[in-house]
């Protein structure tokens, strides 16, 4: 039943690259205390039996849009019916920009804030910006043609495809990786993000680190070859893949899952060809050393882990919110990162939620929201 509802969600996502997520009302039942929305705190959060009321505005990555939709629906329906979560999926670059301009209550990105971003933020606001991860997910190589399902690719082949060094699916470099597959004589049409994108950052950081033949660099935007197709957001890339014969692009796993796009198996550091599944994404995180400042990339994935994976970060402030907004932010992100309900919703869409140890560290960061008044 959940997947059926998700299909309608992603159909709406594809129709618009700037999605506004407004949570729907519900019956107002609260979880058993203590829980977000029903726990008395010293910093103004909802007291036992009380309700928060208002709206939170956020903007940024399209990567988490499917699960952010579900989270907003569930939170407003069963935790805090008086709170709406309004999120615009404008891309990670836009999320960072709007956060630093202080036009939103929170920003979202698959690219963490660099030291220079944090310095700019502190100067503009007069207090520290806070960033913490909330989700992990695979960046899949997805196709529009079912006969390409489970095509094996390595980093060098992927680099060659998106640089237009490899232009046909029966190219010898691809044939060597797929000796038992009858490859079609079909032109490859690469589809990439046209906006400033954290998904692009994850994808190009992986190629820049892993593929010796990659020449386009890494970042939220790179200079793609002229004969490729750009799409706005993960939604636009998904649409470009589906509408062009021979289309191939990089999208978050949730979009490939719900749109039922065939995907490639990608060779990791141990030489294993791995499909993008929740289990393979979780495996990629097993040996990840996450620093205290939460500035990290996921690289050199081995074992049975899928090698192209990234995180989604949330950006908030230590000061400058009114008391009610600060309370709503603490309550919502505590629920999203700590509750079993939010965790289950994320896993159903193929996202890997925070592990137990990381949840505790993220909770400490959430407690800092508006702590400086």
From TrEMBL:
Q: Which UniProt keywords apply?
A: Phosphate transport, Signal, Transport
Task: Extract the PROSITE patterns matched here.
Answer: PROKAR_LIPOPROTEIN
The PBP domain, residue ranges: 49-294
> Which Pfam families does the protein's record reference?
PBP_like_2
Instruction: Please verify whether the record's keywords include Signal.
Output: yes
Identify the stretch annotated as signal peptide in this record. Answer: 1-23
Q: A single GO BP annotation from the record? A: phosphate ion transmembrane transport
Q: Name one GO cellular component term.
A: ATP-binding cassette (ABC) transporter complex
Statement: the UniProt record of this protein carries the keyword Transport: yes
Molecular function (GO) terms for this protein are: phosphate ion binding
Q: Identify the PANTHER family for this entry.
A: PHOSPHATE-BINDING PROTEIN PSTS (PTHR42996)
For this chain, the family text in UniProt reads:
Belongs to the PstS family.
Q: What is this protein called?
A: Phosphate-binding protein
Biological source species: Cellulomonas bogoriensis 69B4 = DSM 16987
Q: What is the lineage of its organism?
A: Bacteria, Bacillati, Actinomycetota, Actinomycetes, Micrococcales
